Amino acid sequence: MSLQFRLGYNDQKVVEDFLSRSTAATSAIVLDPKATTRQRYAAEAAAAAGVDVFWDPATELLSYEGYELEKFPMWAGRRFDVAELATSLSARSALVEHTIATHPEGVTHLTAPHFYVESAHSAALNVDLAEATVRQADRPVRAVLVIKHGYARANAADSADMYVSAGVRQIELQLSPFGGEDESLTKIANGFAIAQAFTDAGLHVTLGHSGNLGQVAVALGHASAYSVGVGMLEHVNHKTQVNRRKNPPAERLDEDGNRLRQGGGAGVYLPALAFTATPNLAKKLLEHSDLRLRIGCRIAKCGNDVRGPLLDPRDHYLHSRDAEMGRMMEQPAGWRSTSELERLHRALILRDRINKDYVAPGDPPIKTRTLDSLIVDIERAQAAS
Predict the structure, then answer these.
(1) 65 and 121 together in one domain
(2) Of 121, 149, 213, 305, which has the most beta carbons under 10 Å away?
(3) What are the residues facing 111 on neighbouring strands?
(4) What is the domain range of residue 60?
(5) In this structure, are strands 170-176 and 110-111 parallel, antiparallel, or unpaired?
(6) What is the pLDDT of residue 258?
(7) Which of 167, 213, 168, 169 is nearest to 194 (CA)?
(8) Both 208 and 87 in a single domain?
């Protein structure tokens, strides 16, 4: 049972500092596809803390045309042709060799090249690439499976068996689309059943980019770990991610005409709400005296200022997620589902109160559908056991 953090391009310093302190539940970090050199010290801090270091080759993104793909170390001058790879052993061998050679120093596991799976053909290609990586590797290998939710639902057991037969023992499962604050009970139950099929096959399963869903999945035994980014990456939508890379973002300038950095920043995790808020919403909530004591943070530097999590949202995200997971791990296995049920019930009550009394007119309420669904799923699991 553990938590894994996927680093963004500029997360190396905050993650290095976090890992230099004691961690309760973090078992691995995943280096950014484009930041292998600049994240060297974060990898060294992980090694010193006994935390595994992975790297994401991001080959699934490089099979599409896109903006700034040439900045990825795995870029080979043109997009990867999935149809060509499926029919050419030499092309697959070259890809595996290039992937292994491109892994940065300090990684503890090799990550096999992988592509989005939505059919039997793409599924077979991914397994073949994983098996070839296992055969050539001098370190443990983990597979990453970014898979269409509907295809996974119909083929979970067979897919899991293929990876086991290929010699894979660790896999990060990214169901697409899956996660966020608006998921139905049926979709969550199906997602957990998919993860359970891979776990039942004997794989160490990380439910990738999954936030609350990942933590509950671990508590219920569907997965061994879950992963998030640093204040982001709490859900998966492969098609949205690909479409976002197709066109350059509109240029934004400050008042002096300087180009502003593109892309959204880290959200602010509010553990009492089991919710990662935008910085603006978090500021509104944390500045209200009725709410600050209920939703603030007392860990590390957050305990030294009334602004708490707003001081450094990324550092707060790391230590609050890690502490929350650590508390769950301290519980006996039979109590973990009850612990999660109580956590989500408290969060739901507080979200409802904020929506009723503290959301300004015209502002959207905090969504509660996923929390409602998770609570019902846990109660069903407890009744069945």
Answers:
(1) yes
(2) 213
(3) 142
(4) 2-230+232-244
(5) unpaired
(6) 57
(7) 213
(8) yes
| Three-class secondary structure of residue 42 per DSSP | helix
Q: Do 277 and 211 meet the contact criterion of CB atoms below 8 Å apart? A: no
Beta pairing, strands 235-236 & 225-228: unpaired
Residue corresponding to tokens 């503290």: 358
Q: Token digits for 63?
A: 């099979």
Structure token pair of residue 218: 């671990």
Residue 279: cis peptide before it, omega within 30 degrees of 0: no
Conformation bin of residue 266: beta by default, left when phi > 0, alpha when psi is -120 to 50: beta
How many Cβ atoms sit within 10 Å of the Cβ of residue 69? 16
Residues 48 and 80 in one domain: yes
Determine if residue 211 is left, alpha or beta; phi over 0 gives left, psi from -120 to 50 gives alpha, anything else beta: left
Interacting residues of 298 by C-beta distance below 8 A, sequence separation 6+: none
With contact defined as beta carbons under 8 Å apart, do 297 and 303 qualify? yes
In a domain, 254, yes or no: no
Q: Could you tell me the two tokens for 240?
A: 């949205």
In a domain, residue 258? The reply is no
As a whole number of angstroms, the distance between CA 173 and CA 163 comes to 12
For residue 226, is pLDDT > 90?
A: yes
Lookup result for tokens 């292994």:
100
Q: What's the structural domain count of the chain?
A: 2
Q: Please enumerate, as own/partner, the contacts of 48-51 that have beta carbons within 8 Å and a separation of 24 or more.
A: 48/19, 48/20, 49/19, 49/20, 49/23, 51/19, 51/23, 51/26, 51/27
Cα distances (Å, whole numbers) of residue 9 to 72, 140, 313, 363? 12, 25, 16, 31
Asked if 99 contacts 112 with a C-beta cutoff of 8 angstroms, the reply is: yes
Mean pLDDT (whole number) for 175-200: 98
> How buried is residue 280: exposed, middle or buried, by Cβ count under 10 Å (0-12/13-18/19+)?
exposed
Rounded Cα–Cα distance for residues 255 and 208 (Å): 39
pTM above 0.85, yes or no: yes
**Angle ∠(280,285,288) on CA atoms, nearest 5:** 125
Distance between terminal CA atoms of the chain? 20
Rounded to 5°, the CA angle 160-60-245 comes to: 145
Residue pLDDT, tens place only, 24-45: 999 999 999 998 889 999 999 9
Let me know whether 80 and 220 are in one domain. Answer: yes
The answer to whether residue 250 is domain-embedded is no
